[in-house]
Records
---
Amino acid sequence: MENIIIVGAGLVGSLLSVYLARAGFKVSVYERNSDPRQINMQSGRSINITLSERGFKALDAVGAADVVRQLCIPVYGRIMHAQDGELTYQPYGNNKEAIYSIGREDLSKALISFAQKHENIEFSFNQKCIDIDLPTATLKLQNLKTGEITQVQADRIFAADGAHSPVRHKMQRLKRFNYSQEYLEQGYKEIIIPPGDDGSWVFDKNAIHIWPRDNFMLIGFPNLDKSFTLSLHLPYEGEISHDSTASGDAVRNLFETYFPDIWLLVEPNLTDYSHKPVEAMVTIKCFPWSYQDKVLLIGDSCHAIVPSYGQGANAGFENCQLLTKCIEQHPGDWQTAFREYETLRKPDMDVLADLCLEHFTVLRKMVGDPKFLERKKIERKLQQMNSEFASLYYNISFTCMSYSEALRIERIHQEMISQIAENNIKREVSV
Ligand SMILES: Cc1cc2nc3c(=O)[nH]c(=O)nc-3n(C[C@H](O)[C@H](O)[C@H](O)COP(=O)(O)OP(=O)(O)OC[C@H]3O[C@@H](n4cnc5c(N)ncnc54)[C@H](O)[C@@H]3O)c2cc1C
């Protein structure tokens, strides 16, 4: 039986271990952090993520969807909070389609526990990859508890070690390895709003709440314990920024001016706000994703995206399924399997990365914009009239069509919507 090493027991690494073990390989997963089931993990990453159709399909294919579903809250649409407190609801679909909000930590623990049930999967925690020899698929590890350094070798190594992947760093030194990274000019800090005094949700639990304010925004996700996680997205520097809201008075001023409807809920929960680091969001593209038939990058290590569509983990899960299919189609021919996988998936992940950057601006700037809302209204009417007419968000979140195909359809739809909007304006003017 071939031995496989996975670096990183994050969301993608854990699910990938299940796919590979089921395909008949012996899998060892090395993770630098402690076992999240034994500690209160403070990764600094977002507290919530949302799962959608393609993520669930990939979980379902290995029987992991049910355990995950129990930890989720369905979210049927967005509620926009205008500065004057007015609320606008945008359903995600016409048939109560939902995305699912889940705690990152809950998901991570569930996937590790699910994977550990498989006899051919072994997890080692507190083992940090400090180097890799690509041609021999040999990993140098440091035990972060004891300091001990060891080497492990496998037939193949899969690097699911996240956006700052040490394995990718090593590959970046190879000739003809393409790499780019781009940070958003905005960063975020999270604020937890506990349940109300009577133990109930403080906002509608089945919606994502957005306070779009042009160059900045607040976004809220429901949690299973009836709390909400708010992410405050601000530019790093400038008039309204993380820099300018370093003091408690400045934060109060920001909320009282731009988010007055929730200041009273936020105020008691700001005790550690000023000490929290500002979290960054990055887009990473690179190619190739593989080194010969020995090493493959997977997940954020080769395609980190900004979270505006909530797709990073969903796409990563989908990729575990696609990769396994390629491996099974080319038994023993790993190089062909890797090539096929990366060639198939790279264009889609590039499309998704660009769409996510665009959508970030949409969420911040245009969700509260009357012209945008008018276009959304037209889009919904078209959807009601013709069930084939699905929005880009719909195709990304509620179908498993490729991201490139979703973009192709969207271009056609936007052209139609522009024409209808133009005709509406002409009609209004002539009336
Ligand atoms: C703010 C925010 C919100 C998001 N929201 C969503 C969402 O709603 N929906 C969605 O689908 N996606 C979302 N994402 C994206 C999602 O979090 C990532 O795409 C996903 O976590 C990628 O999984 P991964 O396993 O590739 O990487 P990670 O989850 O980052 O896991 C990498 C693992 O590798 C380990 N590791 C790193 N270096 C080493 C080393 N040297 N040795 C050993 N182990 C190592 C890390 O400790 C970690 O456990 C969001 C991301 C952000 C930042």
Note: The pocket of flavin-adenine dinucleotide is lined by residues 7-13, 30-33, 45-46, 49-50, 128-129, 160-162, 166, 281, 299-301, 307, 310-314, 316 (CB under 6 Å).
---
Amino acid sequence: MSHSHGEARFCVRCGGGLAPRRVEGKTRPACVVCRYVVFEDPKVAVVVMLTDGDRLLLVKRSREPGKGHWALPGGFLDSGEDPREAAVREALEETRLDVEVTELIDIWAEAPALGGATLVIAFRAAQRGGELRASDDAADAAFFALDALPPLAFESTRRAIELMRRA
Ligand SMILES: [Zn+2]
């Protein structure tokens, strides 16, 4: 399976040059030599919404993208990984909390960012154990009241919080 993104310049099959070509209703990179077409797959990310009363758990990003800003715990799915298991894994990695996914909030596509389109799956979760401590790519982790949120890192963070407010 090819996983080329917008920046690919050469064909993964023959090394020929890529040029835009209209294929199945969309302009896609295609090889000028062997006609191989690059279909860009979305990268799938999960985010976790864990509340304590009316406060929401956020993590401060220690790396780009969004370094220094706050986001929901989450990250990209590994190939073949169950989305709910990915949500539990990411929450544990970033906050050391054991969580259980309780509800699917929504799924949406985001504008292409950082090497490809992204499909975001937002889950609500409940804490089952662990003690809050930032780790992995989180510089800090804390609960915030919805009317006193810190600077947010991503559009997906804002969107998920908006969905939660309306629920
Ligand atoms: Zn080719």
Note: The helical segments are 83-95, 155-166.
---
Amino acid sequence: MNNPTSHQFVLIGLPGAGKTSFLAALWYMVNQPSADCQLELDTLDGESKYLNEIRDAWLQYKPVPRNRALSEKLVSMLLRNRKTKVPLAVTIPDPSGESFRLQWTSRQFTTQYDEHLREANGGILFVHSDNIAAPLRIDMAEALIESAIAHDPSIVETIDSDGVQSAPKRWDIETSPTQVQLVELLQFILGRDYFRPGFRLAVVISAWDLVDQSVADPSEWVAKHLPLLGQFLDSNTDAFEVSLYGVSAQGGRYASSLFTSGDFKDVETFVKRLIEKSDPLSNWLWDQLDKAAQATLQEGGQSPETFQTVLVRCLNSVLRSAHIFDEARFRGVKLHTETKEELREVLAKKPDLGEETLRLNRQLLEDAFPQNILNTKQFAKEAAELQSKAPERRVLLVGMDVKNRYDITEPLQWLMQ
Ligand SMILES: Nc1nc2c(ncn2[C@@H]2O[C@H](COP(=O)(O)OP(=O)(O)O)[C@@H](O)[C@H]2O)c(=O)[nH]1
Ligand SMILES: [Mg+2]
């Protein structure tokens, strides 16, 4: 066998940018003899437990696990060109988005990332099409400017979702516009003493399936949503050689586990159960509600719509921020086989709070309150459509350099040119 040419790439992107989903779909495709992609697995090389785990989640239409620790998962694949059979060793560490967040918020750079960057032949920068913090335009900020001039913060009062007036929020570095943070991540790279101009950078706009159909290509999307990033790349063409991709790696939206108002039935009885703390779980749930919500639910004469609004807000917060399962709390609750399986998996993995725990939490509540919580899910129709597709046809790519829109390895091929 020829010695494979080695390629090392860095994945760059804030938390939730679509990095792990991309790797999951990539691992599926290169392992699939019938997949329409130019690179395939040559031989299994070393540790593939993590890759198999994220691929299985992808195949089962479950969110891929979140990596919140600062360390990255090392991903290495021995691939080869399907036609020429020329082998390639590809290393793409899956970093925790957290480490990129810290680069911006506290100007920390992990040594591990620095080492990978030093060795890298290129990088893939990820941006989630539907998860960006937009900048506030100056003409939209008139009230803020007035308040700054007047030195009177009370001028800008905000109204929160419950209609309560509150003091203006202090500026928080974490809420800075996505494009500002991304440009900073690239400037970090640019500033390293080992940086070599002409660094190849594939920019992936992930979840392309969520992009408005009228947007023709990723460069138009960047110009519209991340103009600062677009201008930065345009004016640093010596430093970064760029190719833009719109990628749908997941293939579409999964059904959402978050509550919407239509997910409750017989809402008055449900609220009564919570107020009366009629079982250990209701008791615990009641204690998770904030004071304002408890007061609204206890007040007489409220409409079912008001109950629904409060429940959606509070229970979604519980779904996101707690491990609902507890032996004592669920004694007496009959769990469905599927929930039990999911629970076993989650307990074994002990994941951080995230999409996986949120999904399980919702299933647990559905099983505990079958009379009051429906198993209807937002985006269920889209999810069903996605599930009816052959997995080989789930991935879609667009972009100037894309030759085969089903081939998720296109950005890698371009980086290797
Ligand atoms: N609709 C859609 N959602 C996606 C796609 N890729 C990722 N997502 C969602 O985007 C979120 C973040 O993805 P993830 O791969 O975990 O991002 P990471 O934090 O950068 O590794 C998850 O909720 C995914 O389900 C896609 O192609 N389409
Ligand atoms: Mg990830």
Note: The radius of gyration is 24 Å.
